[in-house]
Structure formats: C-alpha cells, structure tokens
Amino acid sequence: MAPIALVEAKTPAVATQDEVLKKKDLGQIEVLDLPQLYTRPSYLTLTHLLHNLALPPPSWDAPANAPVADPKGLTKYLTTIISSPLKWLADDSEREQIWDLASARLSERCGRSARGDMSRTFRIPLGDGEETEVRIFEPSLTEDQLGLKTWGSAYSLCKRLPELYGEGKLVPRCEAGEKALELGSGTGLLGIGWAGVTGMGTVLTDLPEIEANLRRNVEDNRDDVAGVMEVGVLDWTRNGEATIGMGRYRVVLAADPIYSKEHPGWLVGVVVERLERREGARFVLEIPIREGYSWERDEVRRLLEEGGLEVVGEGRGVGRDDWGGGEVEGWWSVWTWKKECLE
Ligand SMILES: C[S@@+](CC[C@H](N)C(=O)[O-])C[C@H]1O[C@@H](n2cnc3c(N)ncnc32)[C@H](O)[C@@H]1O
Predict the structure, then answer these.
(1) Which of 64, 76, 256, 327 is the most exposed place for a label (fewest CB within 10 A)?
(2) Does 88 share its domain with 191?
C-alpha cells in the first residue's frame, strides 16, 4: 500500500497575515480566523502567525483602558499548539521553533511576572515641547528583584522634571560640576531622565544584584543624554561601603523606594548623610500611594523633618503600573535643609 502523504489541507476562513495584524491592533482577532491544527498548517503559516501575534511591551503612554489584543480563546489556541506533537512538520527543529514561539506569545498574555525579557521606550519631556526617548531593558522576573522592572513613580517624576528644575523653580539650576545622586535606581529610568533633562553629572545606585542591568541601561542611553552618568552599588544599610564616589551631592533623587517598615529609616539616613548642607541642595522624591503603606509614607515625612529637612513643594501625580494595567496615584515632594541645619 502506498504511504499516505501528509499534505497541508486547505485552511478555509483563515485570515491573511495582514488581516490578522490589522485585527490584532484593534484587539478583534477571532480565534476561528486562525489556522486550526487539524488542517495541518505549514511551518511558514504558523511562524508568520505567531510572529504577528506578538504583543508589544506595555506602554504607559497609551490610555489606561486601551483595548488589549488578548481575545478569549487565544490562550487556549496557543496552549493547543504547545501540547500538539506537530507531527506533520518536517523535523524537530521546526517543531521546537513553533513551540518556543507559541510559549512566548502565551507568556506575554499571562501578566508581567510571566513575561520574558523586554525592551521598552519611555518618552521624557525636556521642556519647550522637546522630548527625548529613554530605552530601558527589563529582564524576565524570575527572581523577586523589584529593581529589575520600572515603576510608575520613576516615569511620573521624569515627566514632571521640566516643571521642577530650572531658574526660579523648586530645584534651582545647577552649576557646572555639581552632581546628583539617585538612590534605589532600579532600571535607571529616573536617573537617566534626570541626566537628560538637567545635563547634570548623575550617579545611579542600587543593590549589587541590580547593578549589572542598571549599568546596561545607562550604557544604552549614554550617547543621547547630556549629563555624564556613573553607576555603582550603594546599599542604604551600608552607606559607608558604597562602590561609587562618596561624599555629598547637590541633589539626591529617589522614586518608589519604600516598601517595608525598615525602608523609611534606612533611606532617610542616607539622604541626611549624602545631601550637601547648603542652600540650593534638594532631595526629590516620589512615592506611590499604595493601600496599606500610609504608615511608611508618614514615617518618611516624619524622619526627614526630624533629620533637619523641610518641604519646599509637594503634590499628587498619576503614575502607571504593569500590574493590573491601572493608574496609580503618587506623592511627589521636594525637600531642602532648614536654615539652622545649613553649614
Ligand atoms: C520599587 S523599586 C523602584 C526602582 C526604581 N526607582 C523605579 O522607580 O523604577 C525599589 C528599589 O529600591 C532598591 N532597594 C531596596 N532596598 C535597598 C537598599 N537597602 N539599598 C539600596 N537600594 C535598595 C531596590 O533594589 C529597587 O531597585
């Protein structure tokens, strides 16, 4: 008996790749449009389709309620591909590629924690209608490292910088050679944005396990940013052992640095040690207003005041978050030394 040839059956009602792309943008894909596995779609059909189904990194510039291209049934469709032996494909390498692509598309639809590495672009206003783009790499969150993703407060503060920094503003323009220090930089968005908007030399710091990715992001943006950037380790519990320039700074920055009972004390301890004790010195902070963290926020204010600082300006802003896709309110504030604490 002649062997039965495994030919690709006709795939009725399968949308063209262009149609799938267009529908993906509108969040309108019908799972029935997609090539069903019983029709034995070819390797080429499946690779094109799975590339087209890629979701872009979540954007914080889109409206919070923008449609998500994640129709019901698509995750089931992707799971079916992953669990299928795909016997009609030519060899194992083709099968492996299709399974890998389907797994990647599935994890993109399972929330931020499941998503793999991603490179994102943030648009930061420079003032006078100009903008710059900051490119940030976020590795997949396989470990519980909060500094490997970008948090809404960093972005919200970056967007506010032209309003805060400059002649007659809350943070007076800096002289040549004056530097800024960022604490808990994470992926570096705020520090890089600061160096770009102000042109100041900026030192970005975090814990040892966050340093490599922070350094990578600083290098990726160095050529497009006016201020000279440096990176190092500064653990708030070991301020004296920092690997980067010791001493005091004209500006200290921090975004979303408080998420345990110990953090207010540790953070404020470093601010008091590292902020220059002269007029014009400023500590710039944004903390998201998360439910259940009001004690920590009040404690930051109390400790800063007790440490000799006073607020020169503060307010509320709206940030974004990858978790749940919603908007998060933030408290921004700018601090300086009380007169009696100046040197
Ligand atoms: C919620 S993340 C915010 C990161 C970044 N500022 C942002 O807004 O995207 C908090 C950051 O504080 C850092 N951090 C926590 N404890 C620290 C400590 N003891 N010393 C230095 N950095 C610390 C974390 O590693 C992390 O990068």
Answers:
(1) 76
(2) no
pLDDT band of 77, cuts 50, 70, 90: confident
Q: Could you tell me if 337 and 275 are in contact, meaning their C-beta atoms sit under 8 angstroms apart?
A: yes
Ligand 1, residue 237: give the atom nearest the CA. 19
**Structure tokens belonging to residue 44:** 């080429």
* 168 in the same domain as 65: no
Within this chain, do residues 251 and 314 fall inside the same structural domain, yes or no?
A: yes
CA angle (194 as vertex; 192, 198 as ends), nearest 5: 125
- Whether 207 lines ligand 1, by a CB cut-off of 6 Å, is yes
- Candidate from 207, 300, 322 with most ligand 1 atoms within 8 A of CB, to mutate: 207
Among 74, 108, 142, residue at a domain's last position:
108
- Banded model confidence at residue 13, pLDDT cuts 50, 70, 90: very low
Confidence class for position 67, pLDDT limits 50, 70, 90: very low
The number of the ligand 1 atom at minimal distance from the alpha carbon of 152 is 8
CA distances from residue 21 to 9, 26, 62, 107, 253 in whole angstroms, order as listed: 23, 9, 19, 19, 42
The residue segments making up the domain with residue 57 are 17-108
105: pLDDT strictly greater than 90: no
Would the CB of 255 count as within 6 Å of ligand 1?
A: yes
Say how many domains are in the chain. Answer: 2
Q: Of 56, 80, 108, which residue sits at a domain end?
A: 108
